[in-house]
Design goal:
Elements: H1 7-28, H2 41-75, H3 86-107, H4 109-115, H5 144-148, H6 153-166, H7 180-185, H8 189-195, H9 213-218, H10 241-258, H11 262-270, H12 283-298
Helix pairs in contact: 3-4, 3-6, 4-10
Domain Fatty acid hydroxylase: 88-220
Pfam families: FA_hydroxylase (PF04116)
Organism: Streptomyces ureilyticus
């Protein structure tokens, strides 16, 4: 087994230090946008609580996930050695599959129920990076191809942790746009602010982890032009970590109970978060008739 460090664990002191520096920076030099920017104590506490909770739940989910990865790794005849020149290639490959995992978690509702946690804050600061889901069991299938290609599960875990650590610093409004060459290749605070925005033109964009080139290649890139409005299209307005972690699963359950057919139930689970079943045949015509009648009455 490769002897690789736990980069998330080693990075926790840096996370704390940088968050404190950002808080002090906001206090000394408040953003021009005012109350919409900066920190709110309850929001920050919720984000930190979600991060701490995710550490515990991730240990639970890792048991079956590691078992599956280990089985796949034992079955494949391929082996990728952990060497100084293969690690960057594995990081690149992991980032590619992260892009598709991240994109999938935005466009398939049952996956969005996991990822929505990270978007539930109406603030955007370094503590927002810590607002992690407690149900990451939806992520592992996207990386099975890497293990099947001979990447050791421990090496995959290292690459995933490095990707997560990189993304910490891009959750801030205190850094503007960087040099255009860096902005072209890498994910930056500017790109990630767009990703966390709830405006229509910004929705479901900039899915990259370390690199933004995947978004440029696959048509999901949008540059930051106007100031983002953070949060969800329908905000949940709660600081309760349990509700933050489960609110979309509860919404799916309500929609399934109210669904009138198995086709609608499948749509509520596997289509996009905003999907609605088509109106019954004739309902649209009836609505038009009512509108025409109302218009005639007004006239």
């Amino acid at each position: 087994m490769p002897n690789l460090p736990d980069v998330v664990l080693w990075s926790i002191p840096a996370f704390v230090l940088l968050a404190v520096v950002e808080m002090v920076s906001v206090r000394i030099h408040p953003a021009a946008e005012g109350a919409a920017a900066g920190y709110e104590a309850k929001d920050a506490v919720t984000s930190v609580s979600m991060g701490l909770g995710s550490l515990g739940f991730d240990l639970l989910w890792k048991i079956p996930i590691v078992a599956v990865y280990t089985a796949v790794y034992e079955l494949t005849p391929l082996r990728v050695p952990v060497l100084w020149w293969t690690v960057p290639l594995m990081l690149l490959a992991q980032d590619f599959f992260y892009y598709w995992s991240h994109r999938g978690h935005h466009v398939i509702r049952i996956l969005w129920a996991c990822h929505v946690v990270h978007h539930s804050s109406q603030k955007f600061n370094l503590t927002t990076a810590l607002r992690q889901p407690w149900t990451t069991w939806t992520v592992w299938p996207f990386y099975v191809p890497l293990v099947a290609l001979g990447v050791h599960p421990a090496a995959l875990a290292f690459c995933s942790s490095a990707n997560l650590v990189y993304q910490f610093w891009i959750h801030t409004e205190r850094i503007g746009k960087l040099h255009r060459a860096f902005e072209f290749v890498f994910n930056t605070p500017s790109h990630h602010r767009v990703h966390h925005a709830s405006q229509g033109g910004y929705l479901d964009r900039n899915f990259g982890g370390i690199l933004i080139v995947w978004d440029r290649l696959f048509g999901s890139f949008v540059p930051e032009t106007e100031r983002p409005v953070y949060g969800l299209t329908k905000n949940i307005d709660t600081y309760n970590p349990l509700r933050v972690a489960t609110h979309e699963y509860a919404a799916i359950a309500r929609d399934l109970r109210a669904a009138g057919s198995w086709r609608e139930r499948a749509g509520r689970v596997f289509r996009g978060p905003g999907w609605q079943p088509p109106a019954p045949v004739g309902a649209e015509d009836a609505g038009d008739a009512v509108s025409e009648t109302a218009a005639g009455t007004v006239a």
